[in-house]
Amino acid sequence: MAADRLGSRLQAARDMAFVGRAEELAAFRSALYGGGCNVLYVHGPGGIGKSALLRRFACEATMAGRAVSLVDGHTLEPSPAAFEAEAGRVLHDADAVLLVDDVERLQGLEGWLRERFLPRVPVGALVVIAGRCPPDIRWQADPGWAGALEVLPLRDLRADDARALLDSRGVPAESREPLLAFAGGHPLALLLGAAVAVKDGGAGRWTPNQDVVATLLDQLVGELPSAAHRLALEVCAHAHTTTEDLLRAALPDDAAALFQWLRRLPFVQSCGSGLFPHDVVRELLEADLRWRDPEGYAAMHDRIHAHLADKVRTANDADALGAVVALLYLHRGNGASADVHGHRVEGEFQEDVLREEDVGTLLRVATAAEGAAAASCAAFWAERQPEAFRLYRRTETGEPAAFSAWLRLEEPDEEELAADPVVAAAWEHARATTPLRAGEHLAVSRLWISPSYGCNAPVMEVIQWRVIANCLRAERMAWSYIAIRRATDAWTERLRRCGMRDLTERPRLADDPYTLFVHDWRAVPAQAWLDRVNRMLVAGPAGGQGAATAGLAVLSQAEFAEAIRKALRHLWRPDALAASPLTRTRLIAERAGDAPATALADLLRQAVEDLREDPRSVKFHRAVAVTYLQDTPTQEAAAERLGLPFTTYRRHLMAGIERVCTALWHRELYGADTPAYRPG
């Protein structure tokens, strides 16, 4: 009997595993019973369930009394004759149903099918074509096919259907959520993961083993043309979105050709900011490369990280948030930064500048969120620094969700200190610790979130992106302070892991305490901060903890000048130079590669030599060079070598040292790339 055959048991098991696809089944039934088109074209990436859907179509057609033919492009010779031999029945039977699977394997036949074969099919017959790629644009551009063809893009299963699939496979409850987090709604990934989870019996947290990874990569990605194509795909998997210029930064090969290849892959999609792969493909490629070639993974990551960090620094204000999202995406899952896809908040909120007509809304939100005293502070700063404010609206409704302000402060102002206890506390801390130096400023971040959202709302992620953009793009910022009212444990831990420490003292506004999270950007500059987070991604959280304490020394101008004078006297003593506080300043941090003592000695010698470039300083150069660069034993001996009276020599020496101190102080403040300081 047919029911006792193995094929019947296999079909029954497949029927149990088939879930969802209500829209596709509805389109097929409409066409099957004469109310739809003549040709259905189903397309989607590998493993998305095209073959399973065709089998269900075959069952539906058989139950409707229609004769069914199935052509498998994987096994058929790609020629018109071979195709007609398998599918010819549909040319002569108006009730026939033809199902064509793996059409991409029939290279060169798509045009023949469209122009020569399908026009000969009787009107009552139904043809379903399934493949990884969407149909050639000529199908949809041809007015003749407009009413006869329906294209069905096959996507992931809905969340409820994905859970139903796992239930049908008997997956233990403790394995379902991690398996869903990995596979999403991808049917093949769900089925393979379910097989492993059932075999393991739910022991421990489910993760894809290497057999699952290898099998899925083979099914979804397949063989790649070259090592360069593999690397391009791995870059695409690692980055948030991939553009041609990102490929140029990450690859030595032809970025333009590789980008064109990527955009044609069936599991790669495009959006306004570039290309991105299907989530499952992304996770598989990431897991495989990290396991197979950890050094190659780290090298690729570092190239992408450097490129995206530069994008944050150079983007215009409107594009800064997108640049930060792309950079933070590289650190997804490491706990050091916001999980930018955990809340899926991109596009959910829109940021805008504060306009005069928005001030009333700001005051209403601040009052509802934190009371009248907070609203008074917001009004004060909105009048004083309106350019510091940003408004965040929910995209769907236009409803104001939050306001933030990034207050840039250069010196204490009595009116500001009286108006805002939070700003007063920031100034008090800065002055008591390491005060601002000439030309520096501090920044205070304030935010007011509508009570209907709360401090853990997704809009907080968007505000955090703006804060990070401000920190990485700031020039001459000494301190940053992030003020959060009644900070939760989750936000405290997150900011601490980002190198922002919370102050013990809690300023109060009315009766509400505020936590101030502070960072000294002179001690740990933006690049050092990025390097720390970067190491945490590659090496795990333990790999980046040291950077939290490995800060630079922040010296006042007087302390800096005294250290220069002492270092000049010890120029020939490496042990003394190694102990100099100058070895922990920005000056030496910029000279990567040398031992600190060696770098300091070289820097001092070069600064002395630079005095010769100004004709007015040549005599000062001679005094400093003979005294320190030639290791003259005494100042009297130096004056004698120069043939100068001792008082004249001392005057020249002091003037030369002063010029060296001034030039190096300028570099300490502004960086090595700024023009050299020339005294007037």
TrEMBL record:
One of its GO terms (molecular function) is ATP binding. It comes from the Bacteria. Keywords: ATP-binding, Nucleotide-binding. This is ATP-binding protein. It comes from Nonomuraea mesophila.
